[in-house]
Amino acid sequence: MKLLVVGSGGREHAIAKKLLESKDVEKVFVAPGNDGMTLDGLDLINIGISEHSKLIDFVKANDIAWTFIGPDDALAAGIVDDFNAAGLKAFGPTKAAAELEWSKDFAKEIMVKYDVPTAAYGTFSDFEEAKAYIEEKGAPIVVKADGLALGKGVVVAETVEQAVEAAHEMLLDNKFGDSGARVVIEEFLDGEEFSLFAFVNGDKFYIMPTAQDHKRAYDGDKGPNTGGMGAYAPVPHLPQSVVDTAVDTIVKPVLEGMIKEGRPYLGVLYAGLILTADGPKVIEFNSRFGDPETQIILPRLTSDFAQNITDILDGKKPAITWTDKGVTLGVVVASNGYPLAYEKGVKLPAKTEGDIITYYAGAKFAENGQDLLSNGGRVYMLVATADTVKDGQNIIYSQLNKQNTEGLFYRNDIGSKALKD
């Protein structure tokens, strides 16, 4: 069996690497991928994620069994619809189902309609109306671009002035283009955040281990929001009862609601949740695997990944199994300046071998065809499984301390929330 993964980042590296481990998989192609993936035997295809017709032609010409769609913008552009229209199998939601991610206002409407716990909110396209709402509600308050913004379109404002400035940047300064033409302004929810993922086909779903992402650029959750600087799974201090409540009050009603709306869901559903004093509530939905959570969840999968996805696509119950050993922890290494302006072309350390996995997000070969150079904001991620979070930190940070990371940076506290009393 030959498979295709669409995307180029660390998430797609983890998906493709795991698929290649499956006993019936002969080859995994990644379009367009990045050069670091070739070190794990993956085959890169120079076709962009927006080139749907070229991707479809490639799949047909190369007898690809099915395609796994990684990025949110590809899903929002209707890539699954185009594959389905061509008679091809693709694992991911249609454009209509993926609106759970590409419109925060739509997601809020679904949650309100189907009684899913989330923050109170208002949606605005007029700046003066947004400003009045912020001034009425006070701070802290959260301002979000309605559309996709690479994980950077959310401002948690500690003052009214900060919130008004964020709304001004989105609505009047066009900071996020069309994605910020509307803003969703939410009440601030206090509590601990965690990620809950599920493989989904309609009303059938299969929950994955919990994870906790670290969105801020710098230690102590300081600095701007990024796409994610590290993660660990499972979240050891999160009771199973909380997960059970989230499944019953969030995952089930949303998936059933999407069917009632004529938008049945297929693919990976991500629920970004926060454990409040009133129980788990939704911060956001994503219509695909998270990055960097994918890189620390998939190493915990002990069943045949390709067979699992094949079964879900065919409407069969998959035999999904996970390790119950310890914790898997990963730290992202990024280019200096990320998530703002950053330089490319920094020489990267040699790929780790053994128990520490290296996933590449933004890497390309130098002209000599041997040295890997940085080619993105987030560059690579080191991942290890250990008995405890502390052990995982020791393994990863010991390795990072040996590497030459000049021109790059990483957080030194990934997983530390799990160590607090």
Termini separation comes to 48 Å
Shape: globular
Largest sheet data: 6 strands, antiparallel
How big a fraction of the residues is strand? 25-35%
What's the total count of β strands? 23
What is the third-level CATH name, the topology of the largest domain? D-amino Acid Aminotransferase, Chain A, domain 1
Low-confidence stretches: none
Overview of this structure, please?
- With 421 residues, the protein is an alpha+beta fold.
- It has four domains: 2-92, Rossmann fold; 126-181, Dna Ligase, domain 1, CATH 3.30.1490; 192-313, 2-Layer Sandwich (D-amino Acid Aminotransferase, Chain A, domain 1); 327-419, Alpha-Beta Complex (Glycinamide Ribonucleotide Synthetase, Chain A, domain 4), CATH 3.90.600.10.
- Helix content is 28%, strand content 28%.
- The protein has helices spanning 10-20, 52-61, 72-76, 79-85, 99-102, 104-113, 127-137, 160-171, 240-260, 293-297, 305-313, 389-402; strands at residues 2-7, 27-32, 43-44, 64-69, 90-91, 121-124, 141-145, 154-157, 183-187, 192-201, 204-207, 212-213, 216-218, 222-225, 230-233, 266-276, 279-286, 327-335, 357-360, 363-365, 372-374, 378-386, 408-409.
- The strands form six sheets. Strands 12, 15, 18, 19, 22 and 23 form a six-stranded antiparallel β-sheet that branches. Strands 3-2-1-4-5 form a five-stranded parallel β-sheet, with helices on both faces. It has a four-stranded antiparallel β-sheet with strand order 6-9-7-8, sandwiched between helices.
- The chain starts with a strand and ends in a 12-residue tail after the last strand.
- The mean pLDDT is 95.
- GO terms for molecular function: phosphoribosylamine-glycine ligase activity.
- It catalyses: 5-phospho-beta-D-ribosylamine + glycine + ATP = N(1)-(5-phospho-beta-D-ribosyl)glycinamide + ADP + phosphate + H(+).
- Pathway: Purine metabolism; IMP biosynthesis via de novo pathway; N(1)-(5-phospho-D-ribosyl)glycinamide from 5-phospho-alpha-D-ribose 1-diphosphate: step 2/2.
- Its EC number is 6.3.4.13.
